[in-house]
Specification:
CATH class of the largest domain: Mainly Beta
Distance between the termini: 59 Å
Strand content: 25-35%
CATH superfamily of the largest domain: Glucose Permease (Domain IIA)
Shape: globular
Strand order of the largest sheet: 11-7-8-9-13-5-2-14
CATH architecture of the largest domain: Distorted Sandwich
Radius of gyration: 18 Å
Number of helices: 8
Order of helices and strands: HHHHEEEEHHEEEHHEEEEEEEE
Number of strands: 15
Structural class: alpha+beta
Helix content: 10-25%
CATH topology of the largest domain: Glucose Permease (Domain IIA)
Length: 262
Amino acid sequence: MKKLFYRACIELTNQRLLSRILRAFSRSKISRRLIPSFVKTYQLNEEEMGRPVSEYSHLHDLFIRTLKPGARPIDLDARSVISPVDGAVAQVGQLEEKTCFYVKGQKYNIVEMLGSQEAAGRYRDGMYIILYLSPKDYHRIHSPVDGVVRKQWSLGGRSYPVNEAGLRYGRRPLSRNYRMITELQVADKQLAIVKVGAMNINTIEWTHQSTEIKKGEEIAYFSFGSTVVLLAEKGLLVPDSVADIGSIQMGARLAMKEEKER
C-alpha cells in the first residue's frame, strides 16, 4: 500500500482535483514524516544525496534532490552524448515515414509532438531515444551535449499517464501532455530535448540561465516523475552506438556523435 501511495504522489493521474491534493500534500510539512519510509520503500541511495535525509523538509524536497559532487561522473569523450537523466532507456529507433515512431502500438508524429511542420522539419529521418524516470530516480535533467539553446517552447495543458497502461491505452501522451521542448544547436546539427510533464500540474522547472550549455550541466528538473524524448537530426548520432534498452544513470554514455570528415 505504501508503494502505491508514493507512486500516486509522483506518477500521473488525470483527475485534476486529486492531482492538486497530492501536490499540496507532497509539499506540506506533514509529508516529511513519510520521507524515511519513502527512502526505504524505493531503496534510495542516501550516500549520494546532497543532504542528509533528516534535512529534507517535505516529500517534494526529496523528489527534486540534488546529489553530491561526483556522484554522477560525466563521460568526457568529445563525441559522446550522455544520458540527461537517471532512468531507463525505454526505446530507440529511426523516425519512420520521415517523422513517425511507434510506442506500445501507438503511432507518434513529431509534427504533433513539436507543434508544427517547421519545427519537425529538421528531424525527418532522424533518431529518437525515449528515457523513462521511475519514482526512485534522481529527477534533475542535465544537458546530454555541449550546445547552444536555439529555441525553447512549451506545449500542451493537462497531462495523462506515461506508464505502461497510459502509453498503451492513452491518447498519445508523449505528444499531447504538457511538455517543454529545448532545441540545441550541436555544431551543424540539432538536438531536441522533449521533457514530458507528469500529472495535471505542469511540473517542469527550467534552471539554466545561459544560452550556452556544457555537457552534464543541469538544465531543468521534474517535480514529478515522467519521460524525456531526445530527437536527433539525421547525421548527428551513430545509430549503432546507442546504449542498450535498460537502466542508465545521468552522465553515462548514451550514444556517440557522427565523426565529421576533416
